[in-house]
Amino acid sequence: MSSRELVVLGTASAVPTRHRNHNGYLLRWDGQGFLFDPGEGTQRQMAHAGVSANDVHWLCVTHFHGDHCLGVPGVVQRIARDRVRHPVNAVFPASGETYWRRLRHAAVFADTSVIAEHPLSGDVAEVGALTARRLSHPVESYGYRVQEPAGRRMLPERLAAHGIRGAEIGELQRTGSVRGVSLAECSAPRPGQSAAFVMDTRLCDAVFELAAGADLLVIEATFLSGESALAKEYGHLTAAEAGQVAAEAGVRRLVLTHFSERYGFADEPAFLEDVRRSYDGEVFVARDFMTVPVPTRATT
């Protein structure tokens, strides 16, 4: 199993359907689980997908419309019931803190102390490995990005040319030089991997900033392009706009989700057609319980 992958738990927008649950997305990232926008029914979707409460280390809410947060009570209570020991960071817009409190304490249960709350404010915020940017929606909404720091990859032919081998390679990586040979002479820059998560929003600068160079972009495509006026009115993206973002931002793998209930599986080719107007990279039209690996590391 990949250590970096997306597990899709739900793909509907405001109204769930027989085949699409409300939102829910678990990003597995080097032993950390980022659970984004747990909508109604997420706890049960987790059970179907083989995801446990112990897999959740981050609970990230973009905004407080019901399809993005009504699963919070069940997830929190399951974290408590299963006696999760590790910290769980809860990230959400500070302007919706009243709603967070209602969801966090929606019913009687034996509570847990592992949840650390991180209300967000301002246009840009950072919490650990997570960067949040404010989007354009009728209520305050944030998009998220997980970013690995940039590093360097060793070049075997350069190491061999300088006669560096064995333990000296580790010393070079740790100290930056061995026998007068610098790390830069034997390595090349290695970009850090990234995954971005963009839900309810109109097109805005923050969408492109979150998506810039992302290895994996999970993005709403609530409407087809024929409903672009409606999408703009309600603060959503069309599939064509999602494709535009992916193309301009240089995204490597695109995942479309958050579909209006007016569309069924038979409409998936139309979503791909809209995206292909501008984006020729890898595209997944998400379905519940789909698993999407983060692409293998780019070399440049």
UniProtKB/TrEMBL annotation:
Residues 20-129, 175-259 form the Metallo-beta-lactamase domain. Zn(2+) 1 binds at residues 63, 65, 137, 200. GO terms for molecular function: 3'-tRNA processing endoribonuclease activity; zinc ion binding. Its EC number is 3.1.26.11. Zn(2+) 2 binds at residues 67-68, 200, 258. The active site is at residue 67. It is an enzyme of class 3 (hydrolase). Homodimer. This is Ribonuclease Z. The lineage of its organism: Bacteria, Bacillati, Actinomycetota, Actinomycetes, Streptosporangiales. The gene is rnz.
